Amino acid sequence: MEVITGVILRNMLLAAADNLNRQRDKVNALNVFPVPDGDTGTNMSLTLNAAVKEIEKADPNDIGQLTALLARGSLMGARGNSGVILSQFFRGFSQGLSGVKDMATGEDLARALTMSSETTYRAVMKPVEGTMLTVGRAAALAAEESAAEGAHAQTVLEKALEGAAKALADTPNILPVLKEAGVVDAGGQGLLCIFEGFVSGLTCEPLSFAVISEPQLSQVTDEDGEGIKQIEGVLVNKYCTEFLILADNIDADLVRRKLSSKGDSMLVVGDADVVKVHIHTDHPGKVLEFCGSLGNLTDIKIDNMQLQNEEYSSEREHSEGHGTNVINLAKTAADSVPKSLGVVAVVPGQGLAEIFESLGVDFVVPGGQTMNPSTEDLVKAVNRVNAESVIILPNNKNVIFSAQQVRELVDKTVGVVPTRSVPQGIAALMYLMPDESLDENVSLMEENMKEVKTGEVTYAVRATVAGDLQIEEKDIIGLAEGKIAVVGSSVCDVTKRLIDHMMDEESSVISIYYGADQDFSEAEQLRELTQNDYPDCEVELYEGGQPLYYYIVSVE
Amino acid sequence: MSNIHVVTDSGSDLPLKLREELGIHVVPLTVQFGDDIYRDGVDIQVEEFYERLQSGTILPSTCQPSPADFEALYQQIAEPGDTIISVHLSSRLSGTYQSAVLASTMVDDSINIITIDSKSASMGIGLAAVAAAEAARAGHTVEDCVQAAQYAIDHLNVYFVVDTLEYLKRNGRIGQASALVGTLLNIKPILTLNDGVVAPFEKIRGKSKAIRRIHELARALEDQYPGQSFRAALTHAARPNEAQVFAEILKDELPIAGDIAVSYIGPTIGVHVGPGTLALLLYPAA
């Protein structure tokens, strides 16, 4: 196959979605932590399904438009860290193919993959190697190499798959946590599934959307080993500005330097005669003015991304959505009093949801440990809060990244307090000052959310070794600040030892939130035992109602 | 030579020793349990009050002294030519100040009555009254005595923690702290008085943590007023041991001028804050 037509590209994407759906559980099983909620595969497949759904009606003779829809769909459907990175991958991919009409060459594809990789690297502040970032880059390099030799589109994709597979196999040699756990990187595996799908989907006969096997929603979330340490602030620049500069001897570096201060998501690519500029900026005029001084501008396109996304969200509200994550509306925006500052929190369990609402949260998005909400779920929740500024409390390390994506998708000012657990979310809410500014609140909350220590008690989904601890499948494990600290066979015993592990001289309040599968009398017994052990502390018991986790404990 | 008298009300929680030492007069508010009416500190003492507050089913309420009560006292203590400085409960928490102002217009002009709204409660009033009385005793002018009380009021820092917000809520004194009511978690808010009204300062989980935080806030005052010593009072709703421990620690944390006055929160304030309340009141000495 020399070139890829729009139909073939669509087939590739359908096959990729299908393959990822099929292999979802295999990807899920690769999480470094043996906890029952680590689901990179589910997050990536749901993200890709949301993206592919958008291209159903796309014109196969306009590849640029098709991939743009794909990118948008993945951005809105992004779940979990791996989903967000995947959405960035498609964003780069679509940027690489923008302007391409009815067929893409091997060279186009290589460029698209390179841009995919670059975009994913840019999305994380401290890129970690040995993750899906590395796998994506290896695929892009292999594709570029092959395209440079003049290879056909099919060969370029096959080489990309080869490169990705090799890089994936190598991830345990780069990231020690993977080696210890005896797994390859889950996000990387998910990406490989997509490349496998690309290659298997290289057929000219249009595939039906029905080829995608139904994703079955099992328990989800909390990925690990995604390699994200800190996440870069997301763009505030709302005008997506794109154009070509035509001239002799354009200095692309100069363009990059001049434009870098004008916005973000900047891409300046091309050769000496044609340079393509893509930038998200609040000053498209200044960008055009400068570039116009270098040569002739053509193919100018300026989109207001915020408005686009709003239109998009409101359209989606009328359709059935993906129906997996219903936002729990405590009250509707219509009958609530408008205020300057609102709060959206992602919380697992009805009991915890009520606690969060009683602490001033306007909307609770259910999820976290059972299911990472998609970026779209969070966008909807933020839009429904009757406030100009909204704080999001993700309460799960795997939701932080999606929450940060919301900022560029809504018309409101959004602040994300990167709470990694339910207790951190509660600690942050202690500092909610509705009359103060968003920034003031975010910084106070961020500063104080770490006052608490978080403990979680669940069971191991597979045998593993964590430090000195030998863990068998179905063992009860206690995690302190996200790290396995205690192993045993009794929930009560593990929880008590976990609390012992978390206590220090300063500790004065122990809060125990019991899960959906615990009954009150057992939980009360645990509270009494704990109170006996720590007579000087206040030991409090609340119904959390969270799934999978017998207990969530906070010590402060 | 004309005399300066200092008057306050039972909302000041002034310990008897200080009252006697400085000759400060206290007008009692009344506390009502149903049909039983008591004058604070006259007909009912703190121990008995808290016992009744916690055991009984009747919600007590307080009533400001009448202008006539003030008038009678003013007439009784002052000779023509004397000055009375009358410092009272925040006018936004009680009508006591209003009664005093009315009374001052009922007394003959030969007695100079200066009424001051402390915008505070408990020893927040007490410290201002003490400042005025000390200045008077040192022979300062009326203006200087008033100035001393006003300085204490303007520089006062109040932090208090209640065991439950129930009492503030049901007596309608919760002010801006109402947002804290109805939280499902056991929160021990640190409260303060903001322009004479109860306001939340910070939400804290657990009382000992809240007390630690108040210590921190006290220490932070030293940075705000470097090199200065502080006048401090600690009042408590029937928690003498906790208050004593608090005071001992505070002495090591901050340069304190004189003693830390430790006293019971009397019935007047106790009705509104409930048992278990602990309050720190302090200001940098001039």
List the main descriptive attributes of the protein structure presented here.
heterodimer, A: alpha+beta, Alpha-Beta Plaits, Rossmann fold, six-stranded mixed β-sheet, four-stranded antiparallel β-sheet, 18% strand, globular, B: 286 residues, alpha/beta, Hypothetical Protein Tm841, Chain: A,domain 3, 2 domains, 10 helices, 13 strands
Quick overview:
The complex is a heterodimer of chains A (556) and B (286). Chain A is an alpha+beta fold. Chain A has helices at residues 6-22, 24-28, 40-53, 63-77, 80-97, 106-123, 132-148, 153-174, 176-181, 186-200, 252-260, 284-292, 305-318, 350-358, 375-384, 400-406, 422-429, 438-448, 491-502, 520-533; strands at 4-5, 103-104, 239-246, 263-270, 274-281, 296-304, 339-347, 363-366, 387-393, 413-416, 453-459, 464-466, 469-471, 476-480, 483-488, 509-514, 538-543, 551-555.
Overview of the molecule:
The complex is a heterodimer of chains A (556) and B (286). Chain A has 20 helices and 18 strands. Chain A is of the alpha+beta class and 556 residues long. In chain A, the strands form five sheets. Chain A has a six-stranded mixed β-sheet. A four-stranded antiparallel β-sheet of chain A has the order 4-5-3-6. Chain A has a four-stranded parallel β-sheet with strand order 8-7-9-10, with helices on both faces. In chain A, α4 packs antiparallel against α5. Chain A is globular. Chain B has 286 residues and is an alpha/beta fold. Chain B has two domains: 151 residues, Rossmann fold (3-Layer(aba) Sandwich); 128 residues, 2-Layer Sandwich (Hypothetical Protein Tm841, Chain: A,domain 3). Helix content of chain B is 39%, strand content 23%. In chain B, the strands form three sheets. In chain B, strands 10-9-8-13-11-12 form a six-stranded mixed β-sheet, sandwiched between helices. The longest helix of chain B has 18 residues. In chain B, 51% of the residues are buried. At the A-B interface, α14, α17 and β17 of A face α8 of B.
